[in-house]
C-alpha cells in the first residue's frame, strides 16, 4: 500500500529539485548527491531527482523523501517526464517514495491509469505533473495522489509566463484540489506566497541548484 503519510510529512515544507541537464558540468551522480546533501543541510524536507543513477546515488546518502522522475526524449510523443510505467516502477525500486510523471492531456505512449496502477502496485505515490486545471482534475479522478503545477508554461496551451502560475494555483485551491507549487518559484518570497496560495508544499529547482541558470539571470540583468 502506498504510504500517503509521506505527503503529510512534506506539508508546508520545501522540496529541492537537484537536476543537471546532460550539457551541465554538474551532470554527475556524485555531484547531484552533494547538491542534495547541501539542500538537506539547509533544511529541505524532500528532494526531486531526475534519472535512475541520481536516484540511486542520492538514496545511498540520505533518508529524505525522494520524488523521482526520468526525462526521456521520444520520437513518438511530446511527453518527456517519466513517459512509461517501466521507468516509473524502476524509480520506485531504486528508492523514490513518490514518482513524478507527465499527466498532461497530450497523446502519450501508455494510458495514465495503467501508469498510476503500476506505481501504486510497488508502494509508491504518484505526483502528476500538470499544466492546467482540467489536467489536474483528470489526474486526480484517475487516482493521482497529488498534482504539481510543474508543466504550466511547458505545454503550448497553458499560460506562458516568466514567473509562477499564480492563477493556476488559485484555480486549484478554489476547486479544492490538493496541489504542489512548482515551476519558476525563484525567490523565497515566491515559495512562501505559494504556500499562502494553498499549495501543500513547494518544489524549487533552478534558483537553488542550477548555478548556470542563476548566473544567466544576473548577466541578463546587467545588460538590461
Ligand atoms: C518543465 C520541467 O521539465 N521541469 C523539471 C521537472 O522536474 C525541472 O527541470 C524543473 O527544474 C523543476 O520543475 C523545478 O522548477 P524550477 O527549476 O523552475 O524551480
Automatic annotation (TrEMBL):
Belongs to the NanE family. GO terms for molecular function: N-acylglucosamine-6-phosphate 2-epimerase activity. It comes from the Bacteria. It is an enzyme of class 5 (isomerase). The keyword Isomerase applies. Pathway: Amino-sugar metabolism; N-acetylneuraminate degradation; D-fructose 6-phosphate from N-acetylneuraminate: step 3/5. It comes from Deinococcus metallilatus. Keywords: Carbohydrate metabolism, Isomerase. Its EC number is 5.1.3.9. Converts N-acetylmannosamine-6-phosphate (ManNAc-6-P) to N-acetylglucosamine-6-phosphate (GlcNAc-6-P). The gene is nanE. This is Putative N-acetylmannosamine-6-phosphate 2-epimerase. It catalyses: an N-acyl-D-glucosamine 6-phosphate = an N-acyl-D-mannosamine 6-phosphate.
Amino acid at each position: 500500500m502506498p504510504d500517503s503519510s509521506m505527503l503529510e510529512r512534506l506539508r508546508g515544507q520545501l522540496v529541492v529539485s537537484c537536476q543537471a541537464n546532460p550539457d551541465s558540468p554538474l551532470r554527475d551522480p556524485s555531484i547531484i548527491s552533494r547538491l542534495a546533501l547541501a539542500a538537506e543541510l539547509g533544511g529541505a524536507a524532500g528532494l526531486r531527482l531526475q534519472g535512475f543513477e541520481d536516484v540511486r546515488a542520492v538514496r545511498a546518502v540520505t533518508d529524505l523523501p525522494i520524488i523521482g522522475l526520468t526525462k526521456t526524449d521520444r520520437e513518438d510523443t511530446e511527453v518527456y517526464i517519466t513517459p512509461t510505467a517501466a521507468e516509473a516502477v524502476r524509480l520506485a525500486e531504486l528508492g523514490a517514495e513518490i514518482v513524478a510523471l507527465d499527466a498532461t492531456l497530450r497523446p502519450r505512449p501508455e494510458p495514465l491509469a495503467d501508469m498510476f496502477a503500476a506505481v501504486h502496485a510497488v508502494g509508491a505515490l504518484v505526483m502528476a505533473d500538470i499544466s492546467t486545471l482540467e489536467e489536474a482534475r483528470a489526474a486526480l479522478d484517475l487516482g493521482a495522489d497529488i498534482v504539481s503545477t510543474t508543466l504550466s508554461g511547458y505545454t503550448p496551451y497553458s499560460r506562458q509566463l516568466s514567473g509562477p502560475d499564480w492563477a493556476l494555483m488559485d484555480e486549484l485551491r478554489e476547486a479544492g484540489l490538493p496541489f504542489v507549487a512548482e515551476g519558476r518559484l525563484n525567490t523565497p518570497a515566491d515559495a512562501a506566497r505559494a504556500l499562502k496560495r494553498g499549495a501543500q508544499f513547494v518544489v524549487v529547482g533552478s534558483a537553488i541548484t542550477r548555478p548556470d541558470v542563476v548566473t544567466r539571470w544576473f548577466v541578463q540583468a546587467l545588460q538590461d
